[in-house]
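Two folds, back to back.
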Amino acid sequence: MSKGLCELYGLPVAELKQLLGQDLEADRVTLMEIHGDVARSTHSWQRPGVAEFSAKQQAISLAKATVSLSKLDLFNEDSLFLTDPQAIAASFPQILACYGDDYQLNNGLLAPFYERGELRGLVAVENLNPALNLDFNDLIELTADFVGAKVAGKNLKEQRDTDVLTKLNDRHPYLAKLNFYQKSQTSRTVGVAFMDLNGLKKANDEPGHDAGDKILIAAGNLISQAFGRDYVYRVGGDEFVVLDDQSSRTEFESHCAAFEKALTQPASPSISIGAEWCPDSHYLREAVERADRKMRRQKKDFYK
């Protein structure tokens, strides 16, 4: 095993694939994650001069592959080395269709990885140098195991940080962002909006909690459409906060105006909002508190 491959572990996935590709003198190393019957490229490295095709590999149907990826463990201790270009083309027609006529795939080394016994993806190395004195299968199997652990860890983090009902960021990443900006040496501008649903208790008490859940989901979708899903956090039962650290003040105020206009549409949920512009993210907590107070004044007016 080369020195580079001995240093694989502890690296980010992107650097790991680059190192693997360089050591195997390959054209490309791709991480394909699998959800149901569809695979998509989530990380890709290619040597200089080789075109990048990951954008075209976002909806690869496994049903059209003549090699069953779920049965790769029948080959070479959980990996498969294909060396016949015609067999590769016949086995993975969608992959080859992405490349066009300018790229010839002469060999491919594949290794799957699993999460709780379920196939979750594979690592693919294309056009490696077969003359190298290396155990290709062992190397890629170890790499796939490592990448699989990284992907599983990412999925666990997403589950921890995502609100189960609305699929938005939950309170944990919200508090993490507040703490980050409080301690950061650099400062950013942040658009802050604090929101609270009106009448949710009544919806839960009368039609029932299913009706209340539908209102919360609709509210989350409406807020996401106006401000962008990445910046929206569900921080309480019926409370949402927007922390937009990418938009200018003009853009943020435009988002607020679009949101308030959306609230006037028929069947839109009733939401009180308080918006605040924070020119210095070191004081983000204070800006959130001001936005909260504005929201509560609007909510008080609503119930009057």
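---
second:
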Amino acid sequence: MSFGADIANPIPPIFVVFQVIKEPVVSTMHLWFLWNLCQFCLIHWLLKTTNLLGNKFDGLSVHPLFMWVVLPIVLTLSLMGQSIPFPAPDKLTPQLWSYGFYGSFYCLGVGLYKKQQLISSYHKYLWPLTLGAAISLTGYFSLLPAAPSLDEVIAAATTGYFAAAGELHVLHVLSQGLSVILLTAITFLLGHRFLNHKSKLSRSISNASYWIYLIHVPVLIYIQMPLINTNLPVLVKFIVSVVVTLLIGQISYLLLVKNTWLDALLNGRQTKRKIIQSA
């Protein structure tokens, strides 16, 4: 960030926030995902080891009643107290709303992993899901509030959150939650339909994804800050930032991480499978 402040002209408004806020609320920043995932895994492990739910936990999350009734309700209630767009649960203390929102998707993922044969049966719903996503997204963007002012950003950095507000907040949350569910389903089903086969390229990208997730923020900053001084169109800046960040992440994974202890930590140990041919 010091590099950015010295090189960027004009300096992004966010730097004004850094100058005003002397003691911001501690944030896990983009690593909130790992912190939340650790919490969900711990709870899941406790449920399994204590046998509180028996073997019902994995099966309940893929029941049609959970996916089409319980999931939308829990997601909507979880986001009702959050601003639009909803923030990341980036605090060190557990954020209970994220348990209802991201925790519900975690449960669904656990169930689908155990019963992958169910996924193919939902391929026929791709077009209706796409239509629903288009409608819900149209509603979401039409209700999207104006960008927060600098004073509002400073207040949020001081308190640690943006306050939920607006007469149409409930309707906005409903369209937002529906969009999230449908877009997640569409992406998941498309991946299962077109990428569900052995591919060295897909495997390489997949293995590098955790590494890229960990390092991408500083890499992106070092790319974006010099671009501020150029007159390139914003779309060109966006494409350059994304492509170069992904290239650096992928190449650095292949050169520095692959087949090392760090690779085993991020992706698990790779075991060679023996192919047994029946006579």
